[in-house]
Amino acid sequence: MLRRLKHISRAILEEASAYHPSNVEALEICRLERSLSPRVTTPNRQHLTDAISWIKRAQKAAGDCGGVSWGYCARVPLCSDVPRGWMEPYPETTGYIIPTFLRYARFAGDSEAAEAARRMADWEVRIQLPDGGFPGGIYGSQPVSSSTFVTGQVLFGLLEAYREWNTEQYFRDAAIRAGDFLLECLDETGRFTRGYSHFCAPGSKAYEVRTGLAMAQLGVMLERDTYTRAASRIADYALSCQQRNGWFRENDLEIHDKPLTHTIGYVLEGLQGLGLLLNRADCQDAVQLTLGALSKLVKSDGYLAGRWQNDWTPAVDWVCLTGSAQIAGVFLRMNRILGIPEYIEAGRRLLEFVCWTQDVKGQSPALSGGIRGSYPFGGEYGRWSVLNWATKFFSDSLMDYISMPSTVAKEETADLFAAPMDIPML
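^ that's the sequence the OP posted. Answer follows.
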């Protein structure tokens, strides 16, 4: 009884804290969400420009190091030691923002974005650990140790930096050190047996197949099948985690029986990319199986619950906007390969919903243009925060959308943002 009373008291205090002057930004967003219902918001180039501009501000907010701030916390829970405001840089997501910025720079003629990507890549090289891996968590978090998943995501950035600036041997060298670290942590069954992040539950995870895609890209670039064979083993493990209905087990940061759409997006991106790069039809088939289930779960307004149980019943009443943005991109890219109209429709609805949540008229530079962790803002994923990786995946999917034929995307600049299909831009 006493424990229940304490829980109720804390909930009341937490609710009352929403009206503290320091939480005014979060309060205004929550009020706005309660007053409006989702409506069709056609994705367009302005959404993309605003998102990229927010990431540029997030990089500047992290100081002169070159890394991109984790994001902006508009409100923090009571008795939390998490600071309000801009956070320190985040190695994992800075790594995979590099390909996004270079893609945007090439096709929008934005030299500032290219220079920003160069600073990100240089920072990643400077913080690489002696074993070749990259640290989990926000930069400076303790304990400092290499994470296989983080290393894989940074590897995407190092490879893209080397493709862009191939006279800079240090990007290549750093990528090889990262790849070798990953090989040392991988067993013959395609599971990583060490190198677990201290900031999520230990153990093998299906979504590490996205790390496998980075290893495959490294193998193709270097023409070394040691990396591509390892990537194929990782794909095998991910496929072994898929149920007949398309749901994946062992596929969450913490709660494996109710995975986030974010980690579902990760596993789909990894399998989709490996299917193309390694010519594995079984990976593509697995992606189609899951997309077939998801397409029936996306509501007419684009709402998709943020966690799902193994029978595809929703486990929460909020949206993980990162996952919605990722899965939208998977639908759109698979349509480019297979030409399935249902994929266009599902991807468009998901993207429209995220566009509707984007603050494009706000007065706060910390909020305007960025993508929030959850809808509503108080949802459990990235609560009361705007996240750099949510904004990154949103930007990727917008470029995928704009690159579709003009009859679908209704954009004259469709071809400008087309990404090559041989090496997926993730």
